[in-house]
Amino acid sequence: MSDDPIRTRFAPSPTGALHLGNVRTALFNWLYARGHGGRFILRSEDTDAERSADASLTALTDALGWLGLTVDEGPEEGGPHGPYRQSERSRLYDDALARLQDSGHAYRCYCTREELAEARRRQLAAGRPPRYPGTCRDLSAEERAEREAAGRVPTIRFRVPDEGSITFSDLVLGSQTARLREIGDFIIARSDGSPAFFLANAVDDAEMAVTHVLRGEDHLTNTPRQLLLLNALGYGQQPRYGHFGLILDMDGRPLSKRRGGAMLDELRARGYRPEALINHLVRIGFAPPADGIMDLDALAAAFDPARVAHGGARHDGAALDGWQRQALDRLDADALWEWMAAGAPEDAVALPVDGPVFAAAVRPNILFPEDGWAWARRLFDPEAEPDSDARAEIAAAGPGLFRAALAVQDPAPTEDFGAWAKATGRAAGAKGRGLYRPLRAALTNAVEGPELGAVVPLMPPELVAARLRACAAD
Ligand code: GLU
Ligand code: ZN
């Protein structure tokens, strides 16, 4: 290993919102850099962005910041290897394309779409895997001039040697070998002159001195091509690559915006905590040494791409909710309230107590701010009514229990709920579930929920009395 500082990057095309798969890619690269005292780079791969992608890029930077994945070099941060937007780096790609053509590693291909499709059909019909047939590999200057005169606009292809193979040591999967014969000459510049993904991505990694590229398995077949390009361009310092399995949903399908449930901005708006998402994602295919929520620094110290599982990465919404539970349990009351308040609906009911006191009382019963606000309404809204289960429970208990409850004044239910409930039980001849379920239904409008001893003392005494009176009337 060289002593060069570790440099990793996250290189999204800033055209859409992040889903959990992209976030995991960013996370793994960030963890690797941070765990090795290195730097984490953000590069915007915006070469085929239709319009200025700056709004998406701002949203993306904001999302990374929210997750705690600080960017050391990037479009907004700057840095010694900028610019960090591909749309501003075309000179480098043009230069690489010219060098590859001058050295004979690349050539102009004049084949039309139809000709390529026809060749492909013939190969498939003959039972061969489709590859570029090499039509334009060795055109003479004359033949080229003819095609140009006929108005054909070329793409540029990389000349892959016919024989031999390329081997690299994948950081996740171990040794990988690709046979060159199976690769076929691939396009490195489109007919409008813009660089293809392979080229821009490889050139940038080399120019930005990226040392480690961790990315999804969908890029595994790109890596031999990119290594060929880097060799042909004479880049001695090449990144090491590692490929991990793409995250699938529980039905085994790739995550997608259309199916929902895995878009970062939606999960964030719902109220998921960043540390819940981070701990969930890191554990899809990787087992750090400790259970429970770990902070980013601890995860960085533990992260090792060689121990990331090969394939089979599943996103289980229930597992994520388990991390959300743990994340909420670790917040102090002020932070819990801050989180809940940030998700307050417009018609939020006024709390009769301090927010942190309320949030702590309902903590075990909520996963999202909206859950907290639903409890606020059930408990504190004078207009709130028992749900159907609660109505059935109240009816089954009958008005006698509530009359007895109203008669117990010392202590008041809001002073010492436990003592009050016991006294009510004695007076009404009820105990256990037969006592507490109807009381819960009458006071909280629901048959399940937070501990009564924690929430009833938060309620205004008049409201408690009014709810008991409503149930005592037959
Ligand atoms: N822009 C590419 C993508 O989002 C980057 C792939 C890579 O990490 O090399 O898939
Ligand atoms: Zn051709």
Describe the structure.
This protein has helices spanning 20-35, 54-67, 90-102, 113-125, 141-149, 197-207, 222-232, 264-270, 274-282, 296-302, 317-330, 333-342, 355-362, 369-380, 388-397, 399-407, 417-428, 433-444, 452-455, 461-472; strands spanning 7-10, 39-42, 106-109, 155-158, 165-170, 174-179, 186-189, 212-216, 240-244, 247-248, 313-314. It is mainly α. A 3-stranded antiparallel sheet has the order 3-4-7. The chain has a two-stranded parallel sheet with strand order 1-2. The protein has a two-stranded antiparallel sheet with strand order 5-6. Strand 1, helix 1 and strand 2 form a beta-alpha-beta unit. Helix 6 packs across helix 7 (222-232), helix 9 crosses helix 11 and helix 16 (399-407) crosses helix 17 (417-428). The model has no long low-confidence stretch (mean pLDDT 95).
